[in-house]
Design a protein that fits this description.
heterodimer, A: mainly alpha, 2 domains, two-stranded antiparallel sheet, about 5% strand, flat, B: mainly alpha, about 0% strand
């Protein structure tokens, strides 16, 4: 927990530094029409760095009791995270519906160990249902790829 | 004058289409409230794009109904599965789950739903009377007053939020920083984009809500090895009617809970402390206080009444001042802007049928809601029996759809994942997420109020203290900000060992 606390506070302080840098470029003083663009971000970043610093000190003075995440906990978390990231990558290239069909099927088979019948049925059924709801009923377009183009959408 | 307006509102809210919308919203909301990883705020955020083509009044009725449904749904998981869907349902599990284990789940659920309904109704009545008054006063507010209210909003997270006040402050600052990314409308300059085109559009808080609360919550729940041990329930008309015969006994708890809920609720982050406080009070004043935590019906009544009263009260600053009291209210505020309405006190003057339709729908929505959940508890509880291997990818796909639909932009799905990881880390390290979201929503409004105030005063911060209303509000805000520093000294002075509000926790 302590290491994660230290790391997060450092990242936040670093982020504050980046904001500070850009705010100075924009100008933090008084312009012709009131405070310049950098005024507000500068104040925010300055306090952010200060607060992150205090949190860093607090965390450094505390003894580490338990780990941020145990190996046993990390496994299931990554098991959710990587396939989800994979789906987002696929969405970029082959559209959301096909990507979600592949993702649902993969996850159901790999983690859920469901029967192939359920995998194929729900893997196709759910994206088709979302397509009907969003694309045809509520007219909200989703990213589409070659398969949808081939079907004429 | 108020009654005529309310009658006008009911004419809007009771049209067949709007009643249908309310029923759909409550059904969807209850499902959302039951599902792990989905709650009021991100449920409303995901379904927001579906309202773009609706008339604004129907749209807000849909969103508020989803919210009521989610609040009811949270009670189902707390009582039957010992899983508090939202932080303010934690206190409901103390007595709700033991009751369910003893085979009295039906009684506990009836008590929970009825208390929710009473709390919500009480808060709605207060809103009906106070909202027009508050809006009338707010019409006289200038930029310094609005900025002072913003300060008060965020100071209450720091002063009353519990946890590490520094981390609350960091969350607020991070939200404001994310809000300032992109085009500065006042000067036309690009801020914090570093030449990256995708950053020019900035960060949308709806995507942040879906990522932080949706994806982050899923990551947290799989880490704990998600397993549901649902208690069996018997729920029929007999059980409901029998419980209703007992409940009037607890009228004191109802009234106390409703007042605590409303009072805490219109300040941000109030629902959770309100539910704990109401539970603690009920325990202290009850004749059976030793039964609390082992399955006492009054222990379900107290937190549920307060949490729902608070949930409804959070709408009060949203419709009168344009400042949301909770992340869910913030998403609704975002909806208002998308539908082309200007949030704030002028809404009462310019869109009376919208405002009063909304207020009237709080009555109808909660009546429909309590009847629906009472009738369909077994159906809603069965949702949690869907295997985890199907539920997880389904929720993530729905989150991705909701994120993309906001701006039809692919980058938002990536942001959703990123916010999901941030939400997971922040939640584990006790950085509160609600203030981050609120700051992200209010960033532009707060900055403009600050700038205009400073222009009025030619750069002097004294303007926030010298104007009477702004000065009073700023003083309270400053008090809340320094409260975490003062409290330990005060406590040492009085010789207190532990904070009184914590006594409800087990």
């Amino acid at each position: 927990m302590r290491a994660a606390d230290l790391l997060t506070a450092s990242v936040l302080a670093l982020l504050g530094g980046v904001v500070l840098y850009d705010a100075v470029r924009l100008g933090i003083g008084w312009g012709t029409d009131g405070p310049k663009s950098g005024f507000f971000p500068f104040s925010l970043a300055a306090i952010l760095i200060l607060m992150s610093g205090v949190i860093l000190l607090q965390a450094a003075r505390r003894a580490s009791t338990r780990p941020f995440v145990s190996r046993r906990q990390l496994g299931p978390v990554l098991k959710v995270l990587w396939p989800a990231a994979g789906m987002v990558v696929l969405t970029q290239f082959i559209g959301l519906y096909v990507a979600s069909a592949l993702y649902l099927g993969f996850y159901m088979r790999w983690v859920g160990r469901h029967s192939w019948l359920a995998v194929v049925g729900l893997g196709i059924g759910i994206p088709v249902a979302t397509f009907l709801i969003f694309e045809t009923w509520f007219l909200v377009p989703m990213p589409k790829g070659p398969v949808e183009a081939w079907l004429g959408y | 004058m108020g009654i005529e307006n309310l009658a006008l509102g009911f004419q809007v809210a009771i049209t067949p289409f709007n009643l249908f919308v309310a029923v759909v919203g409550i059904a969807l909301g209850t499902i959302i409230g039951v599902l792990p990883g989905l709650g009021g705020a991100n449920g409303v955020a995901i379904l927001l794009p579906l309202t773009f083509t609706m008339p604004p009044t129907s749209a807000i009725i849909l969103l508020t109904s989803i919210y009521w449904g989610a609040l009811f749904g949270g009670a189902i998981t707390s009582v039957l599965f010992n899983i508090p869907g939202e932080p303010w349902s934690v206190a409901t599990t103390f007595d709700g789950y033991p009751l369910a284990q003893q085979g009295q789940g039906g009684q506990a659920l009836t008590a929970a739903f009825t208390s929710s309904f009473v709390g919500a109704l009480f808060a709605t009545v207060l809103i009906t009377f106070f909202a027009p008054l508050l809006a009338e006063i707010a019409l006289k507010f200038g930029p310094p007053e609005f900025f002072a209210i913003q300060l008060l909003t965020f100071s209450s997270f720091v002063g009353l939020g519990g946890g590490n006040p520094l981390k609350s402050l960091v969350s607020i600052l991070l939200g404001f920083i994310l809000a300032s990314v992109g085009l500065d409308i006042v000067t036309g300059q690009l801020r914090l984009t570093f030449g990256v085109t995708d950053l020019m559009k900035g960060f949308d808080f709806i995507v942040a809500v879906i990522g932080l609360f949706g994806i982050g919550e899923i990551l947290l729940s799989v880490e704990e090895g998600l397993k549901f041990h649902g208690a069996k329930t018997r729920m029929n008309l007999r059980v409901v009617l029998d419980t209703w015969k007992i409940l009037p006994r607890y009228y004191r708890t109802f009234v106390r809970g409703a007042f605590i809920g409303f009072w805490m609720g219109f300040k941000p982050g109030g629902a959770t402390p309100a539910s704990f406080m109401s539970y603690a009070f009920a325990k202290r004043f009850s004749k059976n206080s030793e039964r609390f935590g082992k399955g006492e019906l009054e222990g379900v009544v107290a937190p549920e009444t307060a949490a729902h009263a608070a949930g409804v009260a959070a709408m009060l600053p949203m419709i009168t001042l344009g400042i949301p009291g909770s992340p869910t209210a913030a998403v609704m505020l975002g909806g208002l802007i998308i539908w082309g309405l200007q949030p704030g006190p002028m809404l009462f003057k310019e869109q009376p049928e919208f405002v009063w339709g909304l207020i009237a729908s709080m009555y109808t929505g909660n009546i429909i809601g309590v009847l629906m959940v009472l009738a369909f508890v077994p159906f809603f509880a069965s949702i949690l029996r869907i295997p985890f291997g199907i539920l997880t990818p389904l929720i993530i796909v729905v989150c991705a759809i909701g994120s993309y639909a906001v701006h039809n932009s692919m980058i938002d799905i990536w942001y959703m994942l990123l916010f999901g990881v941030v939400g997971y880390v922040f939640k584990k390290l006790d950085y509160p997420l609600a203030p981050l979201v609120l700051a992200l929503v209010l960033g532009d409004i707060a900055e403009n109020a600050l700038r205009q105030s400073l222009i009025m005063s030619q750069g002097s911060l004294a303007i926030f203290f010298t104007r009477p209303i702004a000065g009073a509000i700023t003083a309270v805000a400053v008090f809340f900000f320094v409260m975490p520093v003062l409290t330990p000294w005060w406590r040492r002075l009085r010789g207190f060992a532990a904070p009184a509000g914590e006594s409800g926790r087990h």
